[in-house]
Structure formats: structure tokens, C-alpha cells
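Show me any protein, fold above all:
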Amino acid sequence: MLAIAAAAVFALALLFDLADLSSDAINNGTLTVLGLLLISLHFAGVGTNTNWRPRTRGRTRTRR
């Protein structure tokens, strides 16, 4: 999920760069750093749905 958000941020940075839009708080460098932060969090495993409990097998049926 974070990788999708990073892709959206990079797309915004590209559009801002192509349109030469900039403000004091948000510019291309800020959006690029935000996208890199989201990618690094994705690589670190933040936001993944990992079940750390071992799977227990139920009672197996025996053939008679």
C-alpha cells in the first residue's frame, strides 16, 4: 500500500515539475523525499499484513 502512495507522490512531483508549479512549503524536492520515505517504509515492511503467529493445523482425519 505504501508503494502505491509513493507512486502517487512521484506522479505529483512529475506533474509539478512539468507545469513549473512550486510553493514555499511543497516543491519537487519535498515530494521526492516524501516518495523515497514511503518506498523505504514499504521495503522495511511497514504496513504489511504479516501474521507472526504460527499456523496450527487442526485435527487431521485418520483413515480407517
User: Anything to note?
Assistant: The chain has two helices and no strands.
